[in-house]
Amino acid sequence: MKRTAALLLCLMMLLTALPAGAEEFSFSVRHGDRSRRQVAVTVDDCFNLDYTRMAYDLSVKHNVPITFFVLGIKLYPQDAELWRTIAASHNEIGNHSYGHRDLSKQPRMGVYNQVMRAQSSLDAVLGYHYPMQVFRPPYGHTNRAGSVDVNRMIQSLGYDHVILWDVSQTSFEKCKKQVQNGSILLFHTNPKDLKCLEKLIPWLIEEGYELVTVSQMLGKPSVATSTDLYEFVEYRDWQNAL
After folding, report:
1. Euclidean distance between CA atoms 64 and 45, whole angstroms
2. What's the pLDDT tens digit per position in 86-139?
3. Which of the chain's ends, N or C, has fewer CB atoms near its CB within 10 Å?
4. How many other CB atoms are there within 10 angstroms of residue 99's CB atom?
5. pTM of the entire predicted model
6. Long-range pairs of 99-105 with CB within 8 A, sequence gap ≥ 24
């Protein structure tokens, strides 16, 4: 209880205080280092579990990682086995919000709700804490004129960046022409995207690209999971404390 209370206090401090200008650095990331022959394949939403499994199977077949930006609302208890398998693999799971709402149109508490509830949903399905290190806003939208400072709020919740992309194509031929060093490629769990990935991943390997997770591209350490469920603040505790 003391540990949970302390974590809640730290969270509240983060929500109300950030150093001046902290959000001024390049918070939105569209690609990695252009001098390194690396690319990151990302798969968003995960609405369709069959295609999510197919994407995972491709990552295993070719021994390359994929970053899955999952929606909290699509994390069902009956799918726990697949998500535990993905979490334990060389792949990465990223936060894509809970319900795919445009954060630039949400009130302050709506933004926090979308980010924190997604984390809690993943932890509940896995049965342990998997601290998602990368965040992708729905539609790629964050700050806009007249909106709350979404970037600042996301940063206050522990994310160094919001992850966007520089390649979004379902055509293999078009995708090949756009890929370059440091590219972050956006795909979804549907037939066209998986068909493209089936051709694209082998081609990327043949072309000498190193496929990495988004965290690896940003120089972050591997996700440090915890089986002690009392070491993290669950969404319901966080919500009740506000």
Report:
1. 20
2. 999 999 999 999 999 999 999 999 999 999 999 999 999 999 999 999 999 999
3. N
4. 15
5. 0.85
6. 99/71, 99/72, 99/73, 100/45, 100/71, 100/73, 100/138, 101/138, 102/138, 102/139, 102/141, 103/137, 103/138, 103/141, 103/142, 103/150, 104/141, 104/142, 104/143, 104/144, 104/147, 104/150, 105/141, 105/147
Say which amino acid occupies 77.
P
Residue 71 vs residues 24, 37, 94, 120, 135: alpha-carbon distances, Å = 27, 30, 9, 11, 11
100, 140 contact by CB (below 8 A): no
For the domain 28-228, what is the CATH code?
A: 3.20.20.370
Structure tokens at 123: 């932890």
Distance, CA of 26 to CA of 21 (rounded, Å)? 11
What is the C-alpha to C-alpha distance for residues 16 and 238, in angstroms, rounded to an integer? Answer: 14
Per-residue pLDDT tens over the stretch 15-66: 444 433 333 348 999 999 999 999 999 999 999 999 999 999 999 999 999 9
For residues 153 and 113, what is the distance between their CA atoms, to the nearest angstrom? 11
The predicted structure's pLDDT at residue 3 = 45
d(CA 220, CA 23): 19
CA distances from 231 to 83, 117, 128, 131 (A): 21, 17, 10, 11
Domain boundaries, the chain: 28-228
188: DSSP letter: E
Residue type, 232: F
- At 199, list the tokens: 């051709």
Torsion of CA 197, 33, 141, 237, to 10 degrees: 90
